[in-house]
Amino acid sequence: MAASTDIYNSAQSHPVRELRIVLIGGRYNDRLSSKSSAGNFILGQNVFNTSRRTAQSEAKQQEVFSRRVTVVDTPGWWWRGPREATPKLDQIEIQNSVHLCPPGPHVFLLVIPVNLYLSQLVKTSQKQHLELFSANVFSHTIVLFTAVAPCSDETVESKIRTSPVLQWILQQCGNRKHFLNISNREDRDQVKKLLEKIETLITNNGFRHCSVDRNQGETLRKEMRDLTERASKRFDQVQKQRKKLKLQIKGRLQLY
């Protein structure tokens, strides 16, 4: 316990001036509890679009409590779906997120809405999708619970006690967690405490960020270009076929 206290005190006496955060997790119907909303809440600005699904990883930066904070939003996966159900382009975008905050993220925030039902399928999906990152991803992850309706810490703790899947997820992440009540946008103390927890995690990790393979980044960008080009060609082919079909129908109608 004393060692843990020393680490926490060290983090507070030597605050990190730059924090690089990657938001990860599944899709959720309530966009107010989504990763994008959490990113906006952390940065204190509406910089991520919450009116649509996140299709590409995107990095935004703001000064927050005298720290330069970079947040990367990522496409979500289906909470109960296997990795094969996630489109290949989404998988590539998720992997590429770590290359948008060089030299690499300090922390992954695994965003889980408090109201989400966590079945065993969620556990399997979680394991498969986190394999998209490096092997040390769990040692750099904090579980971030989000809610938009009034919700207490006790509600979150009760959910944890009654959910074996959630207990497993937290165990993988070293039982690191934080709760954001997104409905209370004026309570910036929630964000300050989160940044302090991130700094403690950075200290625990010896001030090392999550390892990033630069060569992989180049490979991912090439894959994205190839996939986009193939999709564009398919779209053009479909458009040509539709135009041809319309002309055929028009020609037949003129015969009558």
UniProtKB/TrEMBL annotation:
Keywords: GTP-binding, Nucleotide-binding. Gene3D superfamilies: P-loop containing nucleotide triphosphate hydrolases. GO terms for molecular function: GTP binding. This is AIG1-type G domain-containing protein. Pfam families: AIG1 (PF04548). Residues 20-211 form the AIG1-type G domain. Belongs to the TRAFAC class TrmE-Era-EngA-EngB-Septin-like GTPase superfamily. AIG1/Toc34/Toc159-like paraseptin GTPase family. IAN subfamily.
